[in-house]
Each structure stands twice: as C-alpha cells, then as structure tokens.
Amino acid sequence: MYGVRAARTTSDFYVASRTVTPWWNASAIGGEYLSAASFLGVAGLVLAYGTDMLWFPVGYTAGYLMLLVLVAAPLRRSGAYTLPDFAEARLESSAARRMASILVVTIGWLYLLPQFQAAGLTLRTVTGAPQWAGPVVVAVVVLVSVLGGGMRSITFVQAFQYWLKLTALLVPALFLLLVWVGDGRPELATPGSPVFEEPTSVEVTIDVTVDVPSQISVVADGEPLVLEPGPHEVSAGTVLDFPAGAPIPHASSLTPMTGESWALPLTAGGDHPLYATYSLIIALFFGTMGLPHVLVRFYTNPDGRAARRTTLAVLGLLGVFYVLPGLYGALGRLYTPELLLTGRTDAVVLVLPARLVDGVAGEALSMLVTAGAFAAFLSTSSGLTVSVAGVLSQDLLHGRVRNPVTGFRLGAFLALLVPIGLALTSPFLGIADVVGLAFAVAASSFCPLLLLGIWWRRLTWPGAVAGLLAGGGASTAAVVVTILGGPQSGWVGALLAQPAAWTMPLAFVVMIAVSLGTQQHLAPGVNRTMVRLHTPENLDLNRGDWDPEDRWRT
C-alpha cells in the first residue's frame, strides 16, 4: 500500500522521481541484477563444466566496471526515462527510438524466460508441483508488485531482496564447508569419470535421454537391469538404484567435464573453447551496459555523481555475492553428482543443504535457499517488467490510453505474456546459458549505441539504426537458432552459441561506416546534447562564460 500511495505520477512509476540514494539504489541494483542465472545457474554450470564457468560471475561483475567508467554519469545526465528515450534525445529520430524499443522488448523477454523456467524448476524441486506452476506464481506476484507502485515500490523490495539472497547463500555455505572439512577435504577433481561413492537411488522426474559411459548393472523400479554403453531413454517416474562405484550416466543435453579437465581452464566450450571463452567475456563485460532493466536504475539517481557512487557500491556488493555460487557448484560435484543424470544441475543450490545437513537444520537451510531463489526470480522479473512495460506504454500504447499510469500497468501485463508462453512451451535450457545469450544481444546492440552516442559526436540516426539492425538482428537470429535448434557442432555451432565476438564488432563497424556516409542526417542539436551528457550538474551552463558550440565543434 505504501508503494501505491507514493507512486502517483509518471516519474514515480518510471524512475522513482529520481530521489533514490546511492547505497539504497546499489542494493536495489544488486537485488535486481542477481537473477536466477546468478543464484542457480552459475552453480549448475560449475558442477557440470568446471572452472571455465567462473567467467560468468567475473563477467557479471566486471560489466559494472565498464558502466562506471564509460556510461553511468552521462546516461544519468541525459534526463531520459528509458533507452528509447535516450536514443531519440541523442539522435533526434523517431526511427532510432522505434528500433531501440524493439530491442528493449526482445532483450527483456529473453531475460525473463530463464527467470520463469527457474521458478518452475525450484517449485518442482521443493514441492513436486507441475512445471507450469512456478512461472504462473512468479508472474502473478510480479504483476501485483509492479502494478502497485512502479519503480518507487519495487526499489525498496529489491534492496531487501539483495540482502536476503546474500544471506540465503552465505549461511548454508558455512555449514557446507564445515561438512566438507569434516569429511577430510576430499579432492574436487578426481581422475577418471565421476562415480557414485555409495549406493544411490535416483528418481527421474522428467523424460530424459542419458548417455551411459560404460556397462552398469542397476535396479530399475525394483527390477535388475544392465545398461550397455550409449544413449538410453528413461521415463519420468523411474527410480534407478546404483551400486557404489558405478559410473554416473549424464543427460544427453549435457557434455560435462570429467576427471582433471573439470579443474582446467579452456576445456569447456565445445569444439572451439578458446573462441567460446573470449566471446563469452565480450558478451558479459559489454552486455551489462545494454541491459534495459539495469540502465533504467541510473535514471533514479539524483545526479551523475550519485550514479557513479551507486556503480562503485554495486561492484562491492556483487563481488561479495559471486564468491558463493562457484562454491556450491564445486561441492555439488562431490555430493550431488546424480544431477548430471537428470540434467537438472541448476538445482544443486536447492538440494545440497538438505543432502549434507541432517534433521531440522537441513530443512531450515533448504527453506532459506528456496526463499533466496524466489527472491532472485521476483526481483529480476520485477525490474525487467518495469523496463519492458515502460517501453510498451510509451511506444506501443502511447495515444491509445489516455492515462499514462494506466498505460504503464497495461504494458506490464503485456510484458509478461510472451515469456510466460515461452517458459511453458519451450524446452528447458541452462539458465545461465540463456541469460548469456541475452547479454550477447545487449552487447551487440545497445553497447555500440551508448558508447558511440555518448562519446562520438558524428553518430547519425541512419548509422545507429543500421548498426542496431546488423548487430542486434544477427545476435537475435543466433539466439533463436540456439534456443530452438539446440547446440550445433563445429565452427557454426560456436559462432551461434557465442555470437558476441562477431556481432558486436559488426554493429560498431556498421554504425561508424553508415554514419560517416550520412553526415547530412546529423542531429541539429547534437552539440548541446553532448554538452549536457558530459557537463557536471553543479556547473551552471547559463552563466554565458563559454560556448558549447566551440566545445564540440571538433
């Protein structure tokens, strides 16, 4: 109810009237940014693929360093509500605004998809509910939160959720480390393929195809069975009993690292691990500045200085948090290796506390990590919904709905429809993998637009639109093929699975080349806009002691 009373104007709904303090805003950004990929996906990737996956938390954090240095303060000074607002203000073009709006919605939907899939995974793991229940529950809660008070309302909620997520991982991690030390600190990467250390019973909850590395004698639903090497179809509800020392089959959707390669860098990433690693680094480092739900947060700061202080605080908060998911993934390699069989490695954070800690304490720790997981879904989904709803209400519903607040609420409803449909109908993919693809699209579209728009005076609207079409279109096509068609082999598969290394340079080249050939379309007010982006707020531009036209003439 507080959010409803406080959010009475358009500015309240979109940017909380630009009154959020740096520390509060940094906590809210942490709560919003630490999505299902951070809370669950990173641990699942480390469990399956090893140390190469630590680039995900490194990249997620380093992206804010790029924001701090290149974008944060000028973007705050732009005075825009959304990324399309910035594109229109800088380039003075409605075509650039429309193109930016399409990409904001695309990235928002792509980022919302793994949030809803993770919600289904969590609710099914904890309660046994059907897969569709999680997306529906999270969507309803997000819609109620966003409709209640817009950005002002969810800011307070997201700030609290950061500290809840940190606590939800930190407290159980302390107990898990104590158990690991008590076991004699066993090695994480043992030679050869992983095996069951003791007799283990695994219930398969979904239909899955598993690859058996070598002949295994098991008991399937009470009947002895010998599994020959190769792929085998296992129906949902099947219970498999493995003897101690049996090699662990893995789902065909995974190609996990085995033996010492799990602990070595540049071993994951398919046929071309070096390219995949560098492309992932590019996507994560530069994709952060193109995420619409992150950038809108800088519009809520009072001024550019506060925006920089906010970004610095975010770096500290993220650095503390990202120590923990890798720890869960590494311990999961020892204590929950059966997740490789079911393919649900993203659930390692949810099942590990109860596996290692007995009794009421284990149940309490499981409840804590479950609460943290839902906080991750809700906070990120809320921020994304606000960003997408803002674009839909201003560009799609503008002129069709008289009251802008009503338009925002209708936009929030529309923003959730597509990702819910995708989450309920598309195959389950690795949570962090899908988020990485969203980063690739952001790095290939809004990163070039922001960097050139802020730091290069000669950018024109035809150049910007052409670059967004080239980079954003190519990366989006690669993402769609990867999601619908599954991983490919060879160089084609590497280029599609990790497109940022070629789509981001493509966007820069096209923007620069087309802009140089269309200087007649340079925005008439570009000099004044550039001065506004780069002049500190405490400098009075109306004193008349210098000429902004001279400042940017060259």
From TrEMBL:
CDD domains referenced in this protein's UniProt entry, alphabetically: SLC5sbd_u4
Pfam families found in the cross-reference section: SSF (PF00474)
Subcellular location: Cell membrane
Listed Gene3D superfamilies: Sodium/glucose cotransporter (1.20.1730.10)
Keywords from the named record: Cell membrane, Membrane, Symport, Transmembrane, Transmembrane helix, Transport
Coiled-coil annotated spans: none
GO biological-process terms attached to the record: plasma membrane acetate transport
Transmembrane segments: 55-75, 95-112, 132-150, 162-181, 275-299, 311-331, 364-389, 410-429, 435-456, 463-485, 491-514
Location, primary (coarse class): membrane
Membrane topology of the entry: Multi-pass membrane protein
Protein's UniProt keywords contain Cytoplasm: no
Record GO cellular component, one term: plasma membrane
GO molecular function: acetate transmembrane transporter activity; symporter activity
Stored InterPro entries: Na/Glc_symporter_sf, Na/solute_symporter, Sodium:Solute_Symporter
Family the entry assigns: Belongs to the sodium:solute symporter (SSF) (TC 2.A.21) family.
Protein name: Cation acetate symporter
Lineage, broadest ranks: Bacteria, Bacillati, Actinomycetota, Actinomycetes, Jiangellales
